[in-house]
Amino acid sequence: MQDVMEQRQSTMQIHTNALLLHGFTGAPSDVEPITNMLLEHDWNCRAPMLPGHENGFANIGNVRWTDWITTVEQEAELCARQYGTFSVVGFSMGGLLAAYVANRYPVERVVLLNASVIYVSPMRFFSFVWEKLRERDMTQFRRVSKVPQTALLQFMKMAARLRHEFRHIRQPTLICQSGRDQIVHPRSAEYLRRVIPGETQVITFPRSKHVICWDVETDQVVSCVKRFLIGV
Fold this sequence. Notes:
alpha/beta, 8 helices, 40% helix, 14% strand
């Protein structure tokens, strides 16, 4: 998916522009079902590839967490110049970045999808690994095995620095959380509801795992985001 997924002429209407941010070791495809839904409703959407995530993570070991911040700032500034105001959608690590953007740019609404806040217990992750072994599905493990520890350290540094950003979000915020998330603990949704000072709406998807936009409740996730952002 290209960085600029759609560039229509902006009419400067309220709620017709969005910046969508993917997760660590992910890609813009993480949020593609939501992006496609918004494009079908004539929204202007930007879904950048974060540094180091190109070409099978070939360069991710040389990227610092500040590089992710810089890229997101550039995208947010472009959205502000082109559209005036915009909404931001963040999945997993993208949720941290979405909070950062919401506190510094003319953001109207915020959508957090399994935002990186509280991580799972070892037993919960082991259960997920065991399930994948039984299904003989090694896809995710092969992908993650390409990511060096230095990149994981950069992610952890950014998570520690940006976690407080949630406490300053004053825009209406939709919090979507998977009930079977093997990476971000479902308790994260309740934490976010407590600390975000603005109006919040929490929706749990009990049958979904971490990659919420591509799991068994994809249609329900997209519908909830649609109602929140578009109102239909």
